[in-house]
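User: Here's a protein and a ligand (zinc ion). What would the complex look like?
Assistant: Let me lay out the input and then the predicted complex.
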Amino acid sequence: AETYNHKVVEGKWQKVWDDNKAFAATDDYSKPKYYALVEFPYPSGQGLHVGHPRPYTALDIVARKRRMQGYNVLYPMGWDAFGLPTENYAIKNKIHPKEVTKTNVARFKKQLHSLGYSFDWDREINTTDPEYYKWTQWIFLKLFKAGLAYKKEMPINWCTSCKVGLANEEVVNGVCERCGSEVVRKVKSEWMLKITDYADKLIEGLDGVDYIERVKVSQKNWIGRSTGAEVDFSVKGKEDKLRIYTTRCDTLFGVTYMVVSPEHPILDKYKDEISNWSDIEAYREQAAKKSDFERSELAKDKTGVCIDGLTAINPVNGKEIPIYVSDYVLMSYGTGAIMAVPAHDDRDWEFAKKFGLPLIQVVAKDGEEVDINEAAFTDVATGVLINSDFLNGLEVKDAKEKMIKFLEEKGIGQAKTNYKLRDWVFSRQRYWGEPIPIVHCDKCGYVPIDESQLPLLLPEVDSYMPTDNGESPLAAMTDWVNTTCPCCGGSAKRETDTMPQWAGSSWYFLRYTDPHNTEALASKEALKYWLPVDWYNGGMEHTTLHLLYSRFWHKFLYDQGVVPTSEPYQKRTSHGMILGENGEKMSKSRGNVVNPDDIVDVYGADTLRTYEMFIGAFDLAASWSEDGVKGCRRFLDRVWKLQDSVTDEKGYSKDMETKMHQVIKKVSNDFENLKYNTAIAAMMALLNDFYKKGSVTADEFKTLLILLNPVAPHITEELWSVKNYGGYVYQQTWPEFDEAKTVESTVEIAVQINGKTKATLAIGKEDPKDEVIAKAKEVIADKLTGNVIKEIYVPGRIVNIVMK
Ligand code: ANZ
Ligand code: ZN
């Protein structure tokens, strides 16, 4: 055959697939379904990155395999196109964001198309399309009507460069997740979504889904459910109680001081009686400059000021203890005040050491006191209470229970559950987002616009510049802003904030099931058939953002009777990043960015696909290597050349049968378990075997083409067609393996004389002992010169003839 020309072949097959609508999901709901999903991209101005094809190819493999297994497969693609980078680009280049989006989408689509993905392009969606965001707004109205969307004055994270409020999740290590600029606090009135109402459901739902462990763990940690107790400490000579939150009420007899956060209201209330008020004020000023993140860092040097003039009383033993103010206690968690138990809490221990405060051990290791001067003793599992009156001798778990009962009976405390999760800041003071469908009327307050008025279109504006006063550019559009109240008909003003980037992606997988529906976000039938998504793969960085947000919306829509399942995704996996040749993140400044277009051009899409699957374990980061790309191209060239060695022999040849069944089994299983690299390695080894032998039967070749097709769909279709095998590879049935035939039927055993190997012998695994020994004696007949004393057979391994 001629050498393989990927340019001709790949274009040809992409056209055939398009013309045939080869990968369209059908609306025949009687067939078994499979819904494979990858995170739809943000169509940035940079175009596709080599990181994108890794997850897209992986699930394309799964989708293609499922079709060959007889499933009606939905593998869709779309554009998550609202957002800041597009808006910023539009401002800089004076092009409307709509135009920028159009250009970027066209480029992305062309690039994805060139990679031969089996997406059902008839179901393409775009979050900026009014027909799409109509339903994003519709869901918002439902949330509002259910009391889950509310407006609140609150200190928000304000990015000084993007000039936009950020959710906590968007602040990474104290800087803006998008631009890396400083984030400061600013008080603003913002729309909030009550995701906290769903905290328990979001934790419990994880039990019923098949997510990789690290995703489950990080969602749970993010929600941060903590069970403990609130306890009231009296303040000497005052009416007020100081309420604290603790997860270790068993340690109440070990409290040696208390700490309030710098923002705690008790400070202002008694400022006249606090003799060192100026020190406290100075300390507060310092604390205000730090983020919660910095303040709660464990390793941070502990600082604080003792409040002179206020003394607390421990409610379980009446002891008087000092109260400190310190920034390691946050106002935003629990009650903003703590009881400090330095003997059993690391942060309290460090604080106590620094300020010379006493330590009282109340928990001992298996009842034996430990040296708490070295470190706090925090092991709950082995802890037994001491120095604690009615708790003495109890294990921690039982002591907590008994203490809670005691507190509740005395009316000084009660059990309490807290969460780290905060409500979702849902406003953005920017143009390129979904308008929030609410108007404000002086008489009626916040009023939802009527559903029949959706979509509420984003008005055309000339200037998208963010404003320094923190208002959205929409606020300047008085024609649009001034409206009438849907409730009383009086004059009212539209909400000018828009929704955050995460809105459209919180429900997009629903729309794919029925993307052209004008009556509903999707029909009940479509949702019932396609949900849940069977396999969703996406970035680890979306675990606490998009993945959690979309689970929240889905659970809400489930409670509203809109969707039929309580969880959106049955299975969730995550891929590792692709790094530059130097092992560092690819970036313009490092000059190590690989453009997928170049790889497709020089080596072909099949090579890029094969390479990205072969690059390493799917869940780990991997470094790019041009040599690796070349190696994958060589592999495909050898598959191409094998067409000249195909014989007329039927079925699998006798010496290849076991191997064929083994490879079918390995590839089939590996594709299910994120082990694309070892599946490809197995096909490479099989290819070597064919070359060693010098020939391949038609059935062996066909099987190889089918197995390889999900990875390298173009070259395999071409070979199938060149060989006139009929139809297309994508229409074939996925090959079955026979478990019994995956096991070698013959084994090689060692033939020994007096324990020394003299020869080897191939025998049937099930051959009887007598027969094996007889055969063994034949191959060493010339060496059997003495008296045979004993004949030993270790089944499947050794025959040993003992001679004198
Ligand atoms: C006494 C104690 C003794 C505590 C002990 C721990 C160990 P999680 O699990 O994260 O919920 N805490 C409570 N509110 C706080 C706040 N606003 N800022 C900083 N720390 C706060 O942690 C709860 C524990 O963190 C609470 O239990 C409290 O310290 C501290 F041996 O109370 B503990
Ligand atoms: Zn009104």
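Summary: The longest strand covers residues 149-159.
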